[in-house]
Design brief:
Elements lengths: L1 E2 L2 E2 L5 E2 L9 H11 L4 H8 L3 H8 L7 H11 L3 H6 L3 E2 L11 H39 L1
Antiparallel strand pairs: 1-4, 2-3
Length: about 140
């Protein structure tokens, strides 16, 4: 495990798995693949369904604190790296794409929209539950 800052030709530090470049799901998938594990195998080791791992890697859900600690240990990365990209983690991919400043500037907006969509999906689920209860009480 190493700290994952590399220097580009201009001498600037570029951290492939940093919070600005990658999401939690990106780091989780990268660490899992670096250990040679499939989603199904990692799910079995953690005692969760494969769908749960998929949700984490797609940044649709987040693991609880106890699962985060287990993930960090199983994947041989620091908990801080898994969460933020800082600290001991895995090496950056060999054929990493270069990211323009314009692309990097879009990532926070994409993350914000993803969070808002997740919040709206949760809200919709709560409203649907309330509607079902209301319909059931009207039918009674």
């Amino acid at each position: 495990m190493t700290k994952h800052a590399t220097h580009d030709t201009a001498g600037e530090t570029d951290n492939w798995y940093s919070e600005e470049t990658a999401t939690f799901g990106d780091r989780l998938a990268g660490a899992r693949e670096a250990m040679g594990l499939g989603q199904k195998e990692l799910a079995q080791r953690l005692g969760v369904r494969t769908k749960v791992i998929q949700g984490w890697e797609e940044d649709l859900k987040e693991p609880r604190a106890n699962r985060l600690q287990m993930l960090a240990g199983m994947l041989n990365v620091s908990l801080m790296w898994l969460l933020t990209g800082e600290g001991d983690g895995i090496d950056a991919p060999d054929a990493r794409p270069t990211m323009s400043a314009e692309s990097a500037a879009l990532l926070p907006e994409v993350r914000q929209i993803r969070t808002e969509m997740s919040d709206l999906a949760d809200r919709l689920g709560r409203l649907e539950s309330r509607l079902r209860l209301a319909l059931a009480s009207e039918a009674a």
